[in-house]
Design goal:
Number of helices: 25
Structural class: alpha/beta
Radius of gyration: 21 Å
Helix content: 40-55%
CATH architecture of the largest domain: 3-Layer(aba) Sandwich
Number of strands: 9
Length: 432
């Protein structure tokens, strides 16, 4: 793609990096075939190619985005399917992340929209606040007929209330470290990301991961001071908030690395994993954190990625049919395609993959709240494809996908590590 930046603009290292990405785009249009918003809407502005043109124009002119610009940028799910498809290796992630920061710093949203976004970014990453907000959602359900008629945010409030769970698991007090029953010489040690929303909605996921890791001779630590990885704020354009959350986690993990050491940082929410693995790039121009961030990113492993190399025993050898939904953050963000399926097959499951597995389910962080119309269309499309497999259970590697698909699917949706734990004698995970 031809660009027209001035020498003064290119003197800024960040702009220079983005300009190189823009120039790598050759207008081929392969990305349109796999972009969820283009597939459902057939609008060129709602395709990666269309957004790249828009971002290029905003960068070159330096003008603030207006409402016409913001709409297609807000419609992007950041599923990164376009990056998997692109033959030129265009780093679309950098472009859309930059555009979102520009929108949040230079565009004035409708007051109601602004308030909703501010609430989401201040509630979901904090477990105590998130749990309280779910309680308030229960109280708000009787008011749904009135709330959904509100201008600007009515549809979003309706989506948020419908996504809130009917019940929450009880709070579980857990120790900070879980020792494996294995000879000390053969043991490994990992940090497990506790997370934020997942710990409230489905604490059994990390509990299952700890049991599977311990059985394989892996010690598990939950580091003090670790919290939200910054994914939610990052994808909403709240750059400084996201970086502050990431720094806190980097510091917590660095203490463990420099203390008793870590073989890996294991992550059971693939959306978090995609962000943590990108810390090196996010802090590339931060002299104080660049090195630490790169070290943390290098140690980050999705739970399926880490378990694949362990000698796992499956005495039960389950035989259920499993429909595997590959989360976008895993298949596109982390390029992990086969590990989850290989593990499930090793445990004896009959693993099947749906049609259009590359397409997003519409969760994408809080996308299913902020863009409920598109998210619902993508969810329904995904659920139909999964239902055709006639599976006993749907497995995935991300809590957002579990919540989104589970809100419509009649088939139970669980985390793949729960199925591995079940095959090793753990509790039955089937639920919805």
């Amino acid at each position: 793609m031809q660009t027209h930046f001035t020498a003064d603009q290119l003197a800024d290292p960040h702009t220079a990096d983005l300009e190189k990405i823009l120039r790598s785009c050759v207008h081929c249009g392969f990305c349109t075939a796999t972009c969820p918003t283009y597939v459902v809407g057939r609008d060129e502005r709602d395709s990666p190619r269309g957004r790249i043109y828009l971002i290029k124009e905003l960068l070159e002119t330096g003008r603030a985005p207006d409402a016409y610009d913001v709409e297609p940028l807000d419609h992007c799910l950041s599923c990164l399917s376009c990056m998997t498809t692109c033959p030129s290796g265009v780093d679309y992630r950098r472009l859309i992340d930059h555009a979102r920061v520009e929108v949040e710093t230079r565009y004035t949203r409708d007051p109601a929209d602004r308030l909703l976004r501010a609430l989401l970014v201040r509630l979901l990453p904090y477990p105590a606040r998130f749990r309280l907000s779910i309680g308030l959602a229960w109280l708000g359900r009787p008011l749904l007929p009135i709330l959904k008629r509100l201008p600007v945010v009515g549809e979003r409030l309706e989506a948020m209330l419908r996504l809130s769970p009917a019940r929450l698991p009880a709070r579980v007090a857990t120790p900070r470290e879980f020792k494996a029953k294995a000879p000390a010489a053969s043991r490994r040690r990992v940090a497990l990301l506790t997370g934020c929303a997942q710990g409230v909605l489905a604490p059994e996921i990390n509990a299952a991961a700890i049991r599977v890791l311990n059985r394989a001779g892996v010690d598990v630590v939950l580091p003090e001071g670790e919290g939200c990885c910054g994914s939610l704020a990052h994808h909403m354009g709240y750059e400084q908030r996201a970086l502050a959350q990431a720094r806190a986690d980097i510091d917590a993990w660095t203490r463990e690395i420099d203390g008793d050491g870590l073989d890996a940082i294991v992550i059971t929410a693939s959306g978090c994993g995609a962000t943590i693995k990108d810390y090196g790039a996010m802090f590339g121009h931060d002299a104080a954190y660049a090195g630490k961030a790169a070290r943390v990113a290098a140690l980050a492993k999705d739970v399926s990625e880490y378990l694949l190399d362990l000698d796992l025993a499956f005495p039960a050898r389950r035989g259920e049919i499993v429909a595997y939904h590959p989360a976008c953050s895993l298949q596109h963000g982390q390029k992990i395609l086969d590990a989850p399926k290989a593990l499930l097959r090793r445990a004896g499951y009959d693993v099947r993959t749906p049609a259009e597995a590359h397409l997003c389910c519409g969760s994408a962080g809080v996308y299913n709240i902020l863009q409920p119309r598109i998210a619902s269309e993508l969810r329904d499309r995904k659920v139909r494809n999964l239902a055709r497999l006639k599976a006993d259970v749907i497995a995935t590697g991300n809590i957002g996908c579990m919540t989104q698909i589970g809100s419509k699917s009649a088939t139970p949706v669980v985390h793949l590590v729960e199925l591995l734990d079940w095959a090793q004698g753990g509790p039955t995970p089937l639920r919805n």
